[in-house]
Structures are given as structure tokens and as C-alpha cells.
Write a structure and sequence with these properties.
about 40% helix; seven-stranded mixed beta sheet; alpha/beta; disordered N terminus; binds pyridoxal-5'-phosphate; about 350 residues; three-stranded antiparallel beta sheet
Length: about 350
């Protein structure tokens, strides 16, 4: 496919590829705005209050991206030259360009964990206390749901264990909650239960919820709000009449949350059908949310070849490792798109 319009593609690369629909665009056009650097954009203020209240946090700061949200939060929980521990596949160490080191002077240490989900047993031996020769661990970062972990969901009890552990060492806990909405949709765990566990969070409006841009950094401690705003400013994230963007976020929260279950059902349908194509390709029981990881080591194809073959037939998938492909369902994928993707993938994988 070479001369297609964007809408001809079945784009399963990521849930970030959604485009705002007419109703969301209307909400953006009609947003009341002001200069947010002066704290005068009522739509941004409303979004920040709404998201803070959802999670029971004291304060919230609107930012352009999930990456900036994480980068601000990491600096709130860890001073320069000290250490954050996270899993080895975490977004904060895989896809943020070394920002924690560059912007925060933060050392990160990583632990290989199944599906990216840390356990108390894996984590505790890696925590380092303050001492003359050591780099002290100040905070731990988790990711809910886990992107490179195939959309895996931390069970609440596992997070509670991590919280108890970090508290017992007086360490802070950050959550990259880019897809925490999907975790809630899969488990029905209340957002306030998640919020109660973390010192800082970053939640994205531009993934499954379908806003074109925007994330929110959350802080349990209100005293951190001016610090977060100062770091955002330093990173160039102080925006002016960005209420047009916040309006998309508010629309997304109010209208696109309940449909996340549809994305999960479609991901499950992809997983179940593809599991029949090749043993070991995907375990449908491990597909908990909207991400379907394919392990091509059981096939004769590598990830780049499969992605190229699918692209030639109008289906876009992500090669996320030499033998690893990721399919992600989202608001612009319907049942007919899943049918078409399955036809193309089945043909390519069976060859
Ligand atoms: C888990 C996770 N955290 C953070 C981000 C960063 O979001 P952004 O692309 O808005 O910077 C992403 C992006 O896909 C993500 O998957």
C-alpha cells in the first residue's frame, strides 16, 4: 500500500495514534482559555482539579507529554546524584532519552522483572541505604499498566507490598500511570486506591483516552506543586492558552473511559485468534488490557520482516525487539479493523 490515505490503514502500532473526533474538536474550539503561565486558564485549572480529585492527590500540573510528566515527577522524588530504582523495561529508562540523567542528574538502577512488574522479593535486595560509599536509593518507579510488559497490570496487593517496602525505608514511590485507565478498566480498582499508594504519578490523556496531547503530574504533597511548576517552566513546558488542549483531556476523561473495555475485548480477540496460528506466539491469558505482544521466536520471521509484510497490506504493527511485535487496540480500531488485521497477520505468520 503506497498511496493510501491515513484512514485506510489499520494502525495497531500504538494507542497514541488516535485522532480527535468531531465532538472532541468542538470541545477544544469552545474552551475558555487564558494565560496558564499566569495561572489564568480556567480549563487547565479545571482539568488539574478534576484529575487530582480522581486520584485523591493534593495537586496536579498539566504538561504537554507523559515524558515531561515522568521527568518532573522523578525530580520531585529524587535529588540529583541520588538513585531511582525501576524495572529494566520501564518507559522512564527505555524511551525518555536519558532525561532523568540529563535533566535531573539522577542515577537510575534497573531490575529485570517478569512483564516489568517489580515484586518485594526482587526489589528489596537492590535498595541501597545512605552511606559514605553508596548512592542512596531515594525512590522507586513503577509503570501501570506496563507498556513493554505487554500491557500487564500490577495487582493492587503487589503495589501495596511495594508501598509498604518503600515506606519502611523512607523511600518515595512514583507511578508512570500513562495507562492507569486501562488498569482500572481491567480490574475496577478505584482510582483513589491507586492514588493513595504513590507520592507522585504521571497520567496520560493521549493514550487510550484519545486526547491529541497532554498528561497530568500528580502530587500527594501540596508543597511540591510550586516545585513541579518551576521544573515544568525550566523544561519549556509552561504553556499559554493551552485550555484548548486541556478541553480535549476533559472530554477524553468524560467520554472515552468507559469504552476502554472495548479495546481490551478486541485485544483479547486478536490474542485468541493468533494463539491458534502458532503455539507460543501469544498467551491470551497474559493479555490483560489493550496490548498484544507477539513472540516471533516460534516462527521463521523476524519482527522487522513481519512489520514490513503487514505494512504492504495496510496493517501497521510495531517491532519492539528483534523477535517481538506489539499490537495495540484503541479508539480508532473497530471490529472490522481487527478482522482485517487478523487476515493479514494470519497469512504472514502461516507462510
Ligand atoms: C508507559 C508510558 N509512559 C510514558 C509515555 C510517554 O508519553 P509521551 O509520548 O506523551 O511522552 C508513554 C508513551 O507511550 C508510555 O507508554
Amino acid at each position: 500500500m503506497t498511496d493510501s490515505t491515513a484512514s485506510d490503514w489499520v494502525d495497531l502500532r500504538s494507542d497514541t495514534v488516535t485522532r480527535p473526533g468531531a465532538a472532541m474538536r468542538r470541545a477544544m474550539a469552545e474552551a475558555e482559555v487564558g494565560d496558564d503561565v499566569y495561572g489564568e486558564d480556567p480549563t487547565i485549572t479545571a482539568l488539574e482539579r478534576e484529575v487530582a480529585d480522581m486520584f485523591g492527590h493534593a495537586a496536579a500540573v498539566f504538561v504537554p507529554s507523559g515524558t515531561m510528566g515522568n521527568q518532573i515527577a522523578l525530580r520531585l522524588v529524587c535529588p540529583a546524584a541520588d538513585e531511582i530504582v525501576c524495572d529494566a523495561d520501564a518507559h522512564v529508562v527505555s524511551y525518555e532519552g536519558g532525561g532523568a540523567a540529563q535533566h535531573g542528574g539522577i542515577q537510575t538502577r534497573t531490575i529485570v522483572a517478569p512483564c516489568g512488574l517489580l515484586t518485594r522479593e526482587l526489589l528489596e535486595p537492590q535498595l541501597r541505604l545512605e552511606g559514605y560509599h553508596t548512592v542512596p536509593t531515594r525512590a522507586v518507579a513503577v509503570e501501570q499498566t506496563h507498556n513493554r510488559g505487554g500491557g500487564a497490570v500490577y495487582p493492587l496487593a503487589q503495589l501495596e507490598n511495594l508501598r509498604a517496602l518503600t515506606s519502611s525505608y523512607a523511600m518515595l514511590l512514583h507511578c508512570d500511570g500513562a495507562r492507569i485507565w486501562n488498569a482500572h478498566a481491567a480490574t475496577r480498582v478505584p482510582f483513589t486506591d491507586y492514588g493513595a499508594l504513590f507520592d507522585t504519578m504521571s497520567v496520560c490523556l493521549s493514550k487510550g483516552l484519545g486526547a491529541p496531547v497532554g498528561s497530568v503530574v500528580l502530587m500527594a504533597d501540596a508543597a511540591q506543586e510550586p516545585v513541579a511548576r518551576a521544573i515544568r517552566r525550566r523544561l519549556g513546558g509552561g504553556m499559554r492558552q493551552a485550555g484548548v488542549l486541556a478541553a480535549a483531556g476533559l472530554f477524553a476523561l468524560r467520554h472515552n473511559m468507559s469504552r476502554l473495555a472495548d479495546d481490551h475485548a478486541r485485544a483479547q480477540r486478536l490474542a485468541v485468534a493468533l494463539a491458534d496460528v502458532k503455539d507460543g506466539l501469544v498467551d491470551p491469558a497474559a493479555v490483560e488490557t489493550n496490548i498484544v505482544p507477539l513472540d516471533l521466536s516460534v516462527t521463521a520471521l523476524d519482527a522487522a520482516t513481519l512489520a514490513a509484510q503487514c505494512r504492504a497490506e495496510g496493517v501497521l504493527v510495531s517491532a519492539v525487539g528483534p523477535q517481538r511485535v506489539r499490537l495495540v487496540t484503541h479508539l480508532d480500531i473497530d471490529d472490522a479493523d481487527v478482522d482485517r488485521a487478523l487476515t493479514v497477520l494470519t497469512r504472514a505468520l502461516a507462510a
